[in-house]
Design goal:
The chain is 3% helix and 60% strand. By secondary structure, it is mainly β.
Length: 119
Amino acid sequence: MTIEDLAGTYIITGSNQSADAAGYEGELTLGLDEHKRIVATWLISGDQRQQGTGFFKNNILVINFNYEGDNETIYKGVVVYQCITKDLLEGFWSEKHGNPLYLGEEHCYRKGVNKEVLN
């Protein structure tokens, strides 16, 4: 698998970095910049936009991300995805100010691909 194989839009389901692990859904769009670094944009629950940049090696994708939360606070974190195939990513993430006892999780499948075929 190459970094170019990952470009596209994915449907995501995830759980937050908290004791209750509240769930969320959204989309993740991956592209490449001029240096072949990953450029990522998440749209969570239809209105929360997050962005990040990252790198890819040995089917592992690492992205440093940030977003603006309540009271104009900027939140930062890192997500690590295992690229099962170019259409299926399994990840975990942590934010700087999140609960250090927990990790968030994310499952991503390429938009337009039948999710049942991936299982």
